[in-house]
Hints:
350 residues, alpha+beta, 10 helices, 34% helix
Amino acid sequence: MTVPCADGTAVPSHPSHPQTHRSTGVPLGRRDGSIRPTDPSPATPVAVALDAAARGWYVLPLLPGEKRPASHPADRCPCTGPCRDGHRTWEQRATLDGATITAYWSAHPTHGVGIATGPSGLVVVDLDTPKPGDRPPSAVWAAEGVRTGVHALTVLARRVGESVTPTYAVRTGRGGWHLYYQAPAGVRLTNTGRSIGPWIDTRAWGGQVVAAGNTVSGRPYTLTHDAPPAPLPPWLFQLIQTAPLPPQRPVRVAVGAGRRSAYITAAVNRQLAYITHATGGRNNAVYRSAVALGQLVAGGALTEADATDMLKQAAGGHVATDPTFTWAEVEATISSGLRAGARRPRAVPA
Ligand SMILES: [Zn+2]
């Protein structure tokens, strides 16, 4: 199928201005003249989506002003449109098709544009900046004076005698960076979260990134270096491939003290273990446990925020290891399970 190129957003070619990250010296520009500065005027979502698709990247709609996919959980599938032959996840629905893109974003002009990294053959390195309340990095990173993701990546490269390969780069809304690399052929990489270094996430199968030209919470994502994504450097591939998996041991909690609390604690831990040990039908396991905890929330034994956190923690191991099981899906399943549980409150005797 053919994808029309975004028109009306073409910009004049411009001499190369290799850019360097001021505080760290990370080279984000290329010396081969391939920089094409972005149009300073705001692009429409249709133009943003068509531009990404023209690069061969599969796009998906995001909720207005947010980073989350505009999607629905399997158990609330309307079975219409892209789901008419059965539910499809946002990753499965991500498209390159120009007509689909134009129709969708013309009808939903407030929706943002995400890029599904897996189908697009991309690995995006997401370099964050510390948020208030973030845990400080471990002593070994602190000793290197590392305070941002971009700095941590430079240190990782230096440890193996390399530097950060310049590639297509986007400045994120909160002052971080997205570095786009070509995924290696024949390997299905999944997301990593903070496991290769502090403030470094990587997005591949099961992941998506906010496209350049979008605004999240009023903050723009800006293309800073326009070039075809460089192949993922082997040293970075090695780190991502061998990233330690999150702990699979059961998540256990203690809810207060006393007999009533002991009862609640046992009930919660039973549900969390059920999710952790689920080998198939993980979404069902998350849903069932969310219903059970939703009943306790409705009965006043737990807060909804605590129940959500515990369920997410228990499901986290599956998300990290199974590319078809995504955070968006987990979150949607948890909230729909909690809602179902709330209709049948379960009180715990004092
Ligand atoms: Zn559906």
